[in-house]
Every structure is written in structure tokens, then in C-alpha cells.
Amino acid sequence: MDEIAAGLDDLGVRSGDRVSLLVTPGADLTAVLYACVRIGAVVVVADAGLGLRGLTRAVRGARPDWIIGALPGLGAARALGWPGRRIATVPLPAPARRALRVEHTLVDVARRGARRGARRLAHGSVLPTVPASDAPAAILFTSGSTGPAKGVVYTHGQLGAVRDVLAAQYDIGVGTGLVAGFAPFALLGPALGARSVAPDMDVTAPRTLTARAVAASVAAADATVVFLSPAALANVVATASVLTDADRAALARVRLFLSAGAPVSAALLTAATELMPNASAHTPYGMTEGLLMTDVDLDGVRSAAASDDEGICVGLPAANVRVRIAPLDAAGAATGGLTDAAGVTGEIVVVAPHVRDHYDRLWRTNRVARLGVEDPRGHRTGDVGHLDASGRLWVEGRMQHVLTTPDGVVTPVGPEQRIEGVPGVGRAGVAGIGPRGTQQVVAVVETTGGRRARRPALAPPALAASVRAAAGVPLAAVLTVPVLPTDIRHNSKVDRARLSRWATSVLSGGRMARP
How far apart are CA 43 and CA 35, in angstroms? Predict the structure, then answer.
């Protein structure tokens, strides 16, 4: 890392320069990221799951001075006209370098840094001074699951606070073996002092991760902590039958298992603990703007299942985190003053030292995200939910998915959970049709077993009656689909906005095509 840092400095990469990293998680990305942070360059990281259109919007919006990438990223940069001087992570023949406008390779940078380092030592000088805590360190792009991906700016001090809260919450530190199948953790592992391994998978398609790949990574790193996304975890559980005795012995050494990024069911967490029998299973709640806000373990998830509260219980606030609620009005807007009273539904507002500094070049978004929040470390999450009498946070959906019916405001997660308990129903999505204030609620479900839908259709009368009885809110219609649309290519969150548009079209006489 030091050689790369010195080499980048020698090339003229300066403090404050923006460096876009188009590299898959692994040794190259880790070394380059920390080298950039060391010399004060601002790293720009966007998920390949955004697709070419989303990545183009993100990279052009960030306006990087440099792009460091592998061949796919450099090819996209050249074809789509992304800004920035180019450094390749792999050796390339001269014609390819010219075609891709690559000026240097990472090996060249490291060699240059080694020579520069030797000269610096001979003259008694060192790398540039460590950046100030309030200097920008990184721009991390959101997943794009709730609109165009936004660049989230973190300072060096805020990244340090992220490290500290993770270390305190989960006892991860120097010497801990960590398997990170979730990109943010793969990058944070070295900052925690953890021995980090990224399992063999396509990071843009988490469902490519297998149980054997996780076991191999655990064995290679002598890992005791595993962090996987819910989509990756689902396939790990599905492929567990091929594990060998040696694989199972390796997984038995894991003491802590984490999964986040989308709702995680008790059934999925239970299946994970059957693979890792000595591990405590946790599902943190957070977002790109604040990576750890609350935490709940499997026992907490199970106890919450017996509660009458609406939504998904995501547990108690993490260290130094304060959670409050901005109550909803009759129009579904979060207009009320912030409160921590139990049972009040509204927008979730968090305050913590490790909340992002600001959104990159998005003045209005910055203003909206802090409306009514006096603490500069505060953030309006865009999620809707409530606190219970024990101080646990329950997430009931996204603000833009709140339904305003003639009978009042409806949040989607509670009805969806009740519908998913109906025999023959897999996943469910609740959407609204019609003008706000008079919206009608529609349930769209995946069916299972012998009832599995081959094409979109109105639900059979018996199934529709069961769904209506379970929903807890009046339903205008029940529709079945083979697969519910998800918000981004590699995620598992139902795209309710797309469902709403589709249901409106179908129920107004449009073609019964797939949503």
C-alpha cells in the first residue's frame, strides 16, 4: 500500500483529487483505496450493480480526476466517455493501452513508488501529512434502489467513526478473521485490523455465492466473522447440501454472522445458524449514509414475531446512535416534530458521529435530508417506522411507498408480512392505485407449490379471499405473478413503485404483461 501511495503521489495525484475505483473487491481494490486515503485523495466507489447507465451517471456526476480500473471498467470508461486519466490494474499490451487511453498500470505505480520511497528515505522525507479529520475521504454511491444513485461524502473523521462503531458493536479488531461477501465490509475490514477475505463470487450478482465458497474463505482466513448480503445468504443456504465434513468443521469456527442490505427473515437466519452452529446471528440496520444504526440478533427477531407491532424489528440503536421519529400527517408527509415516543409512525431520523457529511453536489437533497434536524450529524433516512416501548425500532417501508387511502395512511410492510403467512403465498408486494388521499390498496403475490403462477393473473377466488382476510387493510384486488420485480438487479427488495404502475395499468384495462 505504501508503494502505491508513494507512486500515486509521484504521478501527481494530490490531496482532494477524486479517484474513481472501478475494481472488484479484493487485494487490488483494498490496496488502492487505502493508498488514496493515505495521501488525501477522495475515493469514488459505485456499485457495478447500477449497470452501465447508472454507473455512467454516477461517474460523470462525480467528475473524477483519475480512474483506476480493471479491463471491464476501463472499457466502459472509454466507450461511454467517462472523465479522468486512466490507470489499469492489470498489464496491457501497447495497442490496448492506447485504445483505452491508459497512461499507467498499477505495477508501474508500485514500482515508481518504491523508487520514490527509497529517494524520500535517503533525503529524510516521508509521504504527505495525514489528512485532517474534516477533509473529504470518500464518495460512496447509494444502491439506486429508491431513485438515481446519490454520491454520499464521508470525511476522514466520519470513516474513523464508522470503524469505531463496528469495532465496539461486534468486537472486531486486530487479528479477527473476516469473510466479507458484502462490499462495504470488504473495504472496512482492513481499517478494523481484521484479516479480510472476499469469497469467490460475482459481486454484482450475490446469488452466485455458494456454501462451499464461504467455507473455503472461512478456512483460508481462519475466520470467526462472516458478513453476507441476504441475497447471497439465500443461495448459500440453498447450496448447503454439497458441503463436506471439512467445510462444516470450518463453518463451525464462526462466532458471529451478519447479514444486511435488505430485510432478513427469521427462517433465513435460522438456516444460516444451522450451517454455523456456534455463531450468533445478527442483522444490522443502516444505509449508505450511515452503515450501522441499529442491530438485532436472531433471538430478538424471534421475540419480535410475537408482537403486534407493524413492520420489521431492526433492534436497538447502536453505540452513540439516537433514533427519533418525524410523525406522518394525513397526507403521508413527515411534518411532525421529532419524537422518541412509542407507537408513533413516521419518518425515521438518526443522529450519530458516523452519519455521512453531505451528498455530493446535491444541494436540495442535502437540505431535505436535514429538515427539522438541528444536529449536523442528523439524517432523515427516507424510511418509515416507529419505536416500541422497549426502544426497539420497527421499519414499515419507504416514505415514497406510504399509501394514503380514504381510511387513512397505510404503510406497506405490515400487510405484506401478514399476506406472506397465507399458505401458498411466497413474497408479497402491496401497492397503491389512484390519486393520493383516495388510493386503493392492491396486493401482488408470488404463489408457491402447485399454485405457482406461470403468468400474471387475477388471484383464484379462494386464494384472494385468504389474502384479503390476512392483509388487515381493505384490498381492491389481488393479483398473482411468477416473480415480483426487485428494485435493482442484485437486490431482494420488492420494487413497489413499479408494482403500483403495473397494477394501475392492468386494472384500468391494460395488457396483463409481467411487471
Answer: 10
Q: What Å distances lie between residue 245 and 11, 210, 239, CA to CA?
A: 51, 16, 15
The DSSP H or E segment spanning 167 is helix 156-170
Q: Tell which phi-psi region holds residue 63, choosing left (phi > 0), alpha (psi between -120 and 50) or beta.
A: left
The three cell numbers of residue 484 are: 415480483
Instruction: Tell me the C-alpha distance between 197 and 25, whole Å.
Output: 9
Residue type, 458: L
Tell me how long the chain is: 515
Backbone angles phi, psi at 315, to 5 degrees: 90, -165
In this prediction the pTM is: 0.90
Per-position b or e across 441-478, b if 16+ CB within 10 A of its CB: bbbbbbbeeebebeebeebeeebbebbbebbebebebb
Report the C-alpha gap between 490 and 203 in whole angstroms.
9
In this predicted model, what pLDDT tens digit does every residue of 226-274 receive, in sequence order?
998 888 898 999 999 999 999 999 999 999 999 987 778 888 899 999 9
Task: Specify burial of residue 200 (Cβ count, 10 A radius: 0-12, 13-18, 19+).
Answer: middle
Alpha carbon 472 to its chain centroid, in Å, reads: 30
State the virtual CA torsion across 156, 162, 168, 172 in degrees, nearest 10. Answer: -90
Q: Is the Cβ–Cβ distance between 218 and 254 less than 8 Å?
A: yes
Amino acid at 447: T
Task: Give the 3-state secondary structure of residue 303.
Answer: helix
Residue in the block written with cell 413492520: 311
SS3 148: coil
| DSSP bridge pairs for 181 | 228
Sequence-separated (6 or more) residues with CB below 8 Å from residue 436: 331, 332, 404
